[in-house]
Predict the structure.
Amino acid sequence: SFPLQAFIDSMAAPSSSMSMRVSGSSTRSTFSHQPPSHPVSCPVSSRYHQQHHHNGHLFSRTISSSTFAKREQVRRLKAANLDSANLSSDDRDSSSPSRSSQTNGMSSPPSTSSQDEWMEWADANGFNVDAFGESVDGDLHYADVECLVPPVLNPFDGNEGPSQLDTLWENGTGSDCAVQEPPLPVAPDDVNRWVASTSLKSETSYPFGSTGRGIFCSRTLNLRSIKVLGYDMDYTLVHYDVDQWEGRAYDYAKEQLRKTGCPVEGLSFDSEMVIRGLVVDKKLGNLVKPDRFGMVKRSSHGTRMMSTAECRQTYGRESVDLSDNRWVFLNTLFSVSEATLYAQMVDRLDSEEDGSGGWWGHDIKCYESLWRTVSKALFYTHVEGELKAEIIRDPAKFVEVDPQNALALLDQKRAGKKLLLITNSDYVYTQRIMEYAYDPYLPDDMTWRDLFDVTVVSSAKPNFFANSRNLVYEVATEDGLLRPTMRYEQGGVFAGGSARMIEESLGVSGDQILYVGDHIYTDVSVAKVNLQWRTCLVVRELEREVEALEKMAPLRVALKRYMNEKERVSDAFNSMRLELTRRMTTEMWDRDGEILGPSDLPELHDVPETELREGLVKMMAYMEALDAVISKMLGRDGSLFNTRWGYISLAGLNDKSHLTRQVEKYADIYTSRVSNFLHYTPFMYFRSPSQSLAHDRKRWSGQSRSDMRATVANTPGELI
């Protein structure tokens, strides 16, 4: 039998030219891997020239490079497979493994010569991808725009073409290889005219001129290949005024605690006390901000911020492990009221112990018990429905309407995407809030329900993504009465069910679906891990954070220069200290006063010891002065976003926060609001930026001290 997998592995280097005649057809197709004259270009992707001779007429069109590669594989696989099938059983090697065992999980190739069957087999086995491994489903082709004879365009300046690129790496091998810079692409005037007339002029052009309104990519994502977009509702499709929504949740929870005898008099909600991405230490009653490695960088006990020394003493020998029940990650803005009330109650617990082994007359004996009590109070606030009933009565007080959200969803729907709404909120609440936030901004008599192919309320996420089968009900009446059903239907509103049932009902799966939500665990992590859905995280605070980073840029530049200056002086200080240490160790010297071991600073050999010591003292004094300025700057860095915790994305000057690490791991893209999609179109190809390790980065070159001081002098005084 033919060794199919070995042949597939060899497809990385297709032959330069080949022709194919399909038996029983009057059409002959000639493919050229290298175009006969000039390379053919297309606004969508790389193209290859294809000529058709039919009934004496010549027709010309192009196909994408991925389609060309796939058809090449199909042609050669089919030819080889049919040749193998024509062999007699005596000609075959009986010891060869069977064809099915050689395909690494791929289905067996068709046994016929039908081109359609072979192309269908290629699609099913993953050949329809681009050079980056992303699906090209949904890419536009010339046939889609009724272009019979596309123009022949050369993307290079001059006569260079793809064939010349191969010669750039032919001179030498390995470390001796001389790599030349390829020619830059030069777009024709007609192409530039259309590019200049579009709203998205470049990757640096952000919605409303604000970087914080951008969509940022962690993992390359081709929206053209996405067939279904699913959305959460709360803090995703609908954003709330945090002070109003979380403030009222805080008030209801505080009242629950008061009923149980907890001393809550005088407490008030402060939305700046807690930020998303903090972690609750239930064992010690602390709030902590860890970096990407889980090392604690800032912390508070109750509402009191801990000093750097106290933080290091408490957490210097341990790291935050979210798999440990001791830690609770604040994933979403819904956590703000809960964590704020807990921190305040820690202060009360510390100051009002009654000496009986408990506090306030009931079984609260430790910080962990206190966390359970506060969490239960917030839980009753949501379950009893008083808060949501208040929001339903007056949505204008709580909801921050964004009219462009509706336009973004309309664009996606008109582009052929199917839209889902999957929320944990009940139907009555969902109906009222979506009606208020969307219906006034939709055309004609369209309502929010017309936007979505399937709406799922009371979904019970994260179990919705984790379990394959849950009971599903159809919402039968406007007041939310339910009737059992077996599957989701187009245009319906349902309660319960599962993501697997969504896939079965819509005929899609895995990376054909993009889910957008605000909760890093409930919306993003579980959908990614269990289903391999593509994911988008909505982080509304991103807009304020980016604005604060831009305003703080002069301070951060000056801070990094101070740190580089300290590093420069510190390197010299360490070398002088080593020189002095070697002199004090007599066995390191021979009779002629030469160092027995290797030395990288021979110019210090003749410097008197007294002078070395004086130099060390002066350098220590200078570094202490630098430290004083650096400490002051670090204290100010991030204060424009939050005076207690700094930025949500950073932990310290140069490292990422634990939240940022979670975003990178589980969210393919992230943005501040749904309406940002309106600027990027439903056909956007998001490409992740180049990632680097420490050895990839060039060390900052530094400046003279006079230049550095001039820069610092120009930094606004209120920042320093």
Remarks:
- The first strand starts at residue 17 and ends at 21.
- DSSP finds 23 helices and 23 strands in the chain.
